[in-house]
Design goal:
Layout: H1 2-11, E1 21-25, E2 31-38, E3 41-51, E4 54-65, E5 70-75, E6 81-86, E7 90-97, E8 100-109, E9 117-121, E10 126-130, E11 136-140, E12 146-150, E13 158-163, E14 168-173, E15 177-182, E16 187-193, E17 199-205, E18 210-215, E19 220-224, E20 229-233, E21 241-247, E22 252-257, E23 262-266, E24 275-277, E25 285-290, E26 295-300, E27 304-309, E28 314-321, E29 327-332, E30 338-343, E31 347-352, H2 353-356, E32 399-400
Antiparallel strand pairs: 1-2, 2-3, 3-4, 4-31, 5-6, 6-7, 7-8, 9-10, 10-11, 11-12, 13-14, 14-15, 15-16, 16-32, 17-18, 18-19, 19-20, 21-22, 22-23, 23-24, 25-26, 26-27, 27-28, 29-30, 30-31
Length: 413
């Protein structure tokens, strides 16, 4: 089936006109591809493989033509819904199913400028969006009506939104500030002016209540939400970190960078990385999505989506090609049945995970046999104080700001 997949990637061209169904004979003997295009949706990619008079059909995924570039996507926490924030400032919500074409159920003009960040909150009843207009908007998914809006959530553009707990969410702005919002109290409960440039990504470790952030200033920060303090910040790196995930049961932090190198940090030792993985260079790693404790899915500048093993470090295999344009964001559906990807081609793709991973081997269980940087002794605990950041370039920036009680999460409408 690996050969079939490669053949499909090479040969699948522009879809036929609406409603038309065709079969295409591939270079690989006995392999056919069938697709249907309807109302702008390429909704089914199907392999029909003939082997010894047997035909097997494998569902590959769906496409949604958004007509404009998407900056972010998020899946509903319990239903088959996916949201996308567009460069136009619009918020789109689609309902999807494997046996039918996706249907747009909501279109909202959310922001005056682009919609950079999208996240479901309140068990999926509300969608939050962030924008360069500095606002965060809450939208009811049933009615499409604005629930509330915070006009000046950050001094500059809101670049990222990340869910933390059921009642808290973090936002990252272009001014380098990370804020944590309590959706019950509708207020800002933590604010960390830790970076000098825009926030590229964030990751949350719930057991220790640590929020990690990466920035265009070339550093990684660790903020303690319990003490409301910046615990530590990495040394400056010329290789800008773009994406971040926590793996190996909390022992390792992985950062994708602008050069394509993946930086691997040991928990508790964040001043400098303990390992580097360069196999994806020179393509920037724009997005990281954790599959399990051993494997991560990467979205890179060359349009490829790849499965990468961590410690031992290896590219297991490219699993999909979104387009010739950069893959900007990746996300899992609530049941992890689908992998969503967006790029500059204005297409939202929903990939069937089982089909993508069928040649990647069995799921890795337990610990890695041998970690390349031997981190037996570098485990972080709350009893070990962070190393002093004395003498670093940004020692005065790593501080938590006092909270303004008037900084409401949602201004009354």
């Amino acid at each position: 089936m690996a050969g079939s997949t490669e053949s499909w990637r090479m040969k699948l061209g522009p879809a036929t006109r609406a409603g038309r169904m065709r079969d295409f004979r591939m270079k690989v003997p006995g392999v056919w591809v069938k697709w249907r295009r309807s109302s702008g949706f390429l909704w089914s990619w199907v392999f029909m493989v003939e082997r010894s008079n047997q035909v097997s059909v494998v569902f590959i995924g769906m496409e949604i033509n958004l007509k404009n570039i998407a900056f972010d996507l998020d899946f509903h926490p319990s239903n088959q819904l996916v949201a996308a924030g567009l460069i136009t400032g619009n918020l789109f919500l689609y309902r999807y199913a494997e046996d039918s074409e996706p249907q747009r159920v909501l279109k909202v003009r959310a922001h005056r400028e682009s919609c950079r960040a999208v996240r479901f909150i309140n068990e999926g009843r509300v969608i939050l969006t962030g924008s360069p207009d500095c606002s965060i908007l809450a939208t009811d998914i049933e009615t499409g009506s604005p629930v509330a809006r915070l006009e000046n959530s950050h001094e500059k553009a809101v670049n990222r939104l990340v869910n933390l707990t059921e009642t808290t969410i973090a936002s990252g702005g272009d001014e380098g500030c990370i804020k944590v919002w309590d959706t019950r109290q509708q207020s800002c409960c933590n604010s960390f002016q830790v970076h000098e440039e825009y926030i590229t990504d964030m990751a949350f470790e719930p057991d220790s209540m640590k929020l990690l952030g990466t920035s265009g200033d070339g550093t990684l920060s660790v903020s303690n939400l319990r003490s409301n303090k910046v615990q530590t910040q990495s040394e400056f790196s010329e290789d800008e970190p773009l994406s971040i995930v926590i793996m190996k049961n909390g022992r390792k932090v992985i950062c994708g960078t602008e050069s394509g190198t993946m930086l691997i940090y040991s928990w508790g030792f964040f001043k400098d990385c303990s390992d580097r993985f360069t196999a994806l260079s020179p393509n920037p790693v724009n997005s990281l999505l954790k599959l399990d404790e051993e494997r991560v899915i990467t979205g890179t500048e060359n349009g490829l989506i790849s499965l990468v093993g961590i410690l031992p470090n290896r590219v297991i295999q490219p699993i999909a090609e979104h387009s010739e344009y950069p893959v900007e964001r990746l996300a899992f559906s609530h049941d992890r049945k689908f992998l969503g990807s967006i790029s500059h081609d204005s297409i939202l793709k929903l990939w069937d995970i089982d089909s993508l991973l069928q040649d990647s081997g069995k799921k890795v269980e337990g610990k890695s046999a041998a970690d390349s940087d031997d981190d037996e002794m570098d485990m972080d605990t709350d009893n070990i104080p962070p190393k002093s950041s004395k003498g670093t370039k940004r020692k005065n920036n790593g501080r938590a700001q006092g909270l303004d009680t008037t900084s409401d999460f949602f201004a009354d409408l």
